[in-house]
Design goal:
disordered C terminus, two-stranded antiparallel sheet, alpha/beta, 13 helices, 2 domains, 8-stranded parallel beta sheet, 41% helix, 10 strands, 13% strand
Length: 333
């Protein structure tokens, strides 16, 4: 199992990725969240200049945010800056779409987008939006075609899984969903959490900073996917805060500080014992517990763990996690 990292794209992302490389992480993924951070391709390019070995890629790209040629140009430039290290992941759009007040892309649109993306990288002339296009980058403007960039697709339901099988090189999954991982040779799982010190309480300030944003993801996702947020610890308090915002702007309240820190609703939930959900919403516990969870994921077919650290001490979180992960036996492809 490969051990990778993932970060909400920020101005510190190149530095964080360089630290991840020094600690031995296999890959670093950056969120494509323009409503919350700088351009993902810009930060990946800076990271490429600061690193030599670690894999790099956006995870996940959302088709509705850019014309396919824009993402192709970004991928081609990154492939030239970091040869053999680039992969990309696509998804229909969770925070990156909903936080803009937009609907996620349809699976049919994403499938067509990925097919065009891959065709362009091969140097083909493709049809898009009623016209014909191809990469016309002269020498020195991009890597030479064909450009080999593996593609993963973030999917949970049957439609997404079918697209992943037909159009991608692997699966990028989240929220502990591993049911279909064994059907892919590359199955990446995004996780959150922190390694606890002996006797450290789940409601401590440090755990709140390091695991709270990952825990809050459960509230954001449950709300957006039409579930019952009140079934979560502190869910009623979370929803009460969200509902104070006018409906047309409620998505802004939901996704504020998404996976970075706690927004007003997240803080209300935490104060009402929302922290009690951390053992199920994140991979939080002792180093031994974490190693046990990773061993279980590997047995379920996960080939790459993608850990996102949060809090004021990213270096500590990265180091503690990979130290615990190294206590299990994993084969690197």
């Amino acid at each position: 199992m490969n051990i990778s990292s993932q970060f909400p794209t920020s101005l510190d992302s190149p530095r964080h990725i360089a630290i991840a490389e020094q600690l031995g992480y296999d890959r670093a993924w950056l969120f494509d969240i323009p409503q919350q951070g700088p351009d993902v391709w810009m930060m990946l390019a800076l990271a490429a200049q600061r690193t030599e070995r670690i894999g790099l890629g956006p995870g996940v790209l959302v088709p509705g945010l850019r014309h396919p040629m824009v993402n192709v140009s970004g991928a081609a430039a990154l492939a030239a800056l970091a040869p053999g290290r680039v992969a990309v992941a696509f998804g229909t759009g969770f925070s990156a779409a909903r936080a803009l007040g937009a609907k996620p892309s349809t699976w049919a649109y994403l499938e067509k987008y990925v097919r065009v993306f891959r065709g362009l990288l091969r140097g083909e002339t493709v049809d898009w939006d009623g016209g014909r296009m191809r990469m016309m980058h002269p020498a020195g403007h991009a890597a030479a075609r064909p450009i080999d960039v593996p593609v993963l697709i973030s999917a949970l339901g049957p439609k997404g899984l079918a697209v992943a099988k037909d159009s991608a090189d692997g699966l990028f999954t989240v929220n502990g969903e591993t049911a279909f991982a064994s059907e892919f040779t590359w199955a990446a799982l995004g996780i959150h959490g922190t390694v606890l010190s002996d006797g450290e309480a789940l409601d401590s300030p440090r755990v709140r900073a390091a695991a709270g944003p990952g825990n809050a993801l459960a509230y954001h996702a449950t709300y957006e996917f039409g579930g019952d947020v009140t079934a979560l610890p502190g869910g009623r308090e979370w929803l009460d805060v969200i509902n104070r915002t006018p409906e047309r702007e409620r998505h802004l309240a939901v996704h504020d500080q998404h996976l970075v820190t706690l927004n007003a609703a997240d803080r209300a939930a935490w104060a009402a014992s929302g922290w009690a959900a951390i053992p199920t919403t994140t991979v939080t516990g002792s180093a031994a517990h974490l190693a046990e969870r990773l061993t279980e994921y590997a047995a379920q077919g996960i080939t790459e763990i993608v850990y996102q650290p949060t809090g004021p001490d990213i270096t500590h979180e990265l180091e503690a996690f990979i130290t615990a992960a190294r206590t299990i036996t994993h084969d690197r492809p």
